[in-house]
Structures are given as structure tokens and as C-alpha cells.
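Before surveying the methods themselves, it helps to consider a single example record, giving the amino acid sequence and C-alpha cells:
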Amino acid sequence: MKERFKHFSDPRFRRSLFLAVFLLLISLTINFYAGIYATEKASNAVTDIILSNTRAYDLDEIFVYGSWVLVAFIAYVCAKRPSKAPYIIKSIALFVIIRAAFITMTHLGPFPQAAVISPTSFIRYFVFGGDLFFSGHTGLPFLLALIFWDEPRLKWIFLLTSLFFGAVVLLAHLHYTIDVLSAFFISYGISHIALKLFKKDREFFLSP
């Protein structure tokens, strides 16, 4: 137990963890207003190679509750291995900020007959309807798979989660195909930006 929390005796680690949480809160605030803006500016839907040729499935519960399971699992990993928390949290914050920038640039309307997310669901503070490009449900677990690429168990958990959510949002018509496919490439780029920006946190991440 003491070994797990040894990094908390390092002032640099404590500052880094505090900054990571602060950046995450800032990123979620930016995402909130970006989502509102993108939804207000949303225009018409467009045709899509997959969505136009499949019916919409009612998978909103998987979309909502699956998100919270993913968040809970990420929190568990950070609590179990605190040395990795600053890098993970800062990478997620970077992901959210970059995605917020993207969704303010593209104003496509939701695809017709998409699964309806309950307006009373807490996830409505994070998902708005017009925030389509790119898919956070697909991109975030893929980013975590890249972060844990050298740890096969976690890598495959996050990689399969990414593919699973990608299928869910397409079958539920909650994202266009381009939103899902682009998420893999953009998340790959974000992972490399994080390596450059958060070098000291990466050292903590790699420490035993």
C-alpha cells in the first residue's frame, strides 16, 4: 500500500496531479459550451454509406451506461496505480479540448431516426446532439489503448471497448461513419502530442 502511494511524497507529483485535475475540469467546461454551440448551429443531416443502409437500433442505454462504466474503470486504474494518473488525466483533458475545437468547426445535423438520449440523463451535460465530429466514445478508449500499448491486458480492454463503442454509435445512428473512423487517426495524433507536452508526467507513468 505504501509503495503504491510513494509518489505523493514528491511535491512535483502532487502539483502535477492537481494541475491534471484542474485541466480536466477546464476541458469539460470548454466541451460543455462547445457542445451547446455546435448543437445550436447544426444544419441538415447528410447521407452516409453505413447509416443510409441500416436501420437505427435502440442502443441508447448502452451508449449512456457504457460511458459511465468506462469512466469508472479509468478512475479505478488511476486509483490502483496513482503514478499513472497525471499523465492519463492530462491526456484525457487534451483529448476533450481538441475534440471541443473540432465540433465547433463542423455543424452537421444528427442523422434522422437516431436513437434518442433521454433529456433527463446526466450524460446530456456531455453529449448534445450536434457535437458529432469526431466520436468521443470511439476515440477516448482508443487513446487509452495507445497509452497502455505496452501493457497487453489494458491495451486490449481499451481497444475492444473502442471498437465496441464505434459499432454502437453507428448502429444507433448517433454518429456518422466519418466521425467514428476519423476518431482513430485523431486520437493517434493526440497521443503523440501528449508525449511531447507531458514528458515529466510520462516519467511518472513509466516509473514502478
